[in-house]
Amino acid sequence: MPMETVQTIASRMSQSADTIPEEYIRRDKEEPSVEAGDGPVPKIPTVDLGEADQEKLVKAVAGASGEWGIFQVVNHGIPDNLISRLQHVGREFFELPQEEKEVYAKAPDSSGIEGYGTQVQSDPRGKKSWADHLFHKIWPPSSRNYQFWPKKPTSYREVNEEYARYLRQVADKLFRSLSLGLGLEENVLKDGAGGEELQYELKINYYPPCPRPDLTFGVPAHTDLSALTILVPNEVPGLQVFQDDRWINAEYVPGALIIHIGDQIEILSNGKYRSVLHRTTVNKEKVRMSWPVFLEPPMDWVVGPLAQLVDDENPPKFKSKKFKDYMYCKLHKLPQ
After folding, report:
1. CATH code for the part of the protein at 6-10+38-298
2. Which InterPro entries does the entry mention (predicted)?
3. Contacts from 57-65 at CB under 8 Å and sequence distance 24+?
4. Which one of 106, 128, 137, 224 is the catalytic residue?
């Protein structure tokens, strides 16, 4: 019997007028809402990563990371046609028959996150998100488990390996600017987050059309566990960011990458950079997809506020702990 995914539920519901199942419905303040607040709606910053003036680039990256925790980058150096191919092979995978996708399913008793499925973490109230996903590591090469890399389409592996090579260059440039923005040597933040052992984990999010997008989320409000998240969106809007006490829709910028500051950078910077609170809404008529890559420390890597940023006037705001312990506490909603 095929596994019950959001895609199969959406396909079944397209033949009827039923509302979505109760376990997907969010109540009260959790429900999706339009932008609120007085005055003009601010826009998520856009940074030109090709800026030749390093001082100007560092100021833009650091400013956006401290004020917003999120920004979009253009002129990032990843060819447009490679991003298009990345999106194409991802869409092709989700368009395969259900039994072919299930070949890559995460085992029900697995403690890992790699594979095809629906829920990443359990909700204590049994609530589910309106999304399916495919998760696998793309860097370093030694971390790749090709068991979870689709064989169809046939170009999937080639495209994702090429994307990983380009993405590392973008990540290194971001880490350099973030370090310099704190008045540190350019390698400090990357080294603090795992250095060359950083794990690059790709997640393809698939949000099928939803008959009641006002009642559910693709992903509820959260901050990312990662150091950085580098995301490719498709043209269907849905990402919302919490800023100035309101939810703000992320504008689609063709060809741009969306950069999230994650929890580990907030910890390393002792709160000078902000891990962004964000969520994902769904669309009534269109499929929304996204391709985030989470840059995470190895499981036994200890992350804490950098010594250079801590003194009597700036005591540590976070505990130092192994990444696996931080992850366990967050996924199980335990105090850090």
Report:
1. 2.60.120.330
2. DIOX_N, IPNS-like_FE2OG_OXY, IPNS-like_sf, Oxoglu/Fe-dep_dioxygenase_dom, Plant_2OG-oxidoreductases
3. 57/177, 58/177, 58/180, 58/181, 59/181, 61/174, 61/177, 61/178, 61/181, 62/177, 62/178, 62/180, 62/181, 62/182, 62/273, 63/181, 65/178, 65/181, 65/261, 65/265, 65/273, 65/274
4. 224
- 29 pLDDT band (50/70/90 cuts)? very low
Task: Write the single-letter amino acid at 267.
Answer: I
For 53-83, how does the pLDDT look when each residue is reduced to its tens digit (9 = 90+)?
A: 999 999 999 999 999 999 999 999 999 999 9
Q: Is-catalytic flag, 88?
A: no
Domain residue ranges of the chain, discontinuous segments joined by +: 6-10+38-298
Q: Which of 59, 88, 222, 322 is catalytic?
A: 222
Is residue 203 annotated as part of the catalytic site, yes or no? yes
222 is catalytic: yes
The pTM of the full predicted model, rounded to 2 decimals, is 0.92
Tens of pLDDT, residue by residue over 35-52, are: 444 556 789 999 999 999
CA atoms within 13 A on the CB side of 164: 23
**To which H or E segment does residue 170 belong?**
helix 156-181
What DSSP string describes 44-112?
Answer: --EEETT-S-HHHHHHHHHHHHHHTSEEEEES-S--HHHHHHHHHHHHHHHTS-HHHHGGGBPPTT-SS
Q: How far from chain centre, in Å, is Cα 30?
A: 20
Is 278 part of the annotated catalytic residue set? Answer: yes
- The set of residues, in sequence order, having a beta carbon less than 8 Å from that of 292 and lying 6+ positions away, is 202, 203, 205, 229, 230, 231, 232, 260
Greatest pairwise CA separation for the chain in angstroms: 64
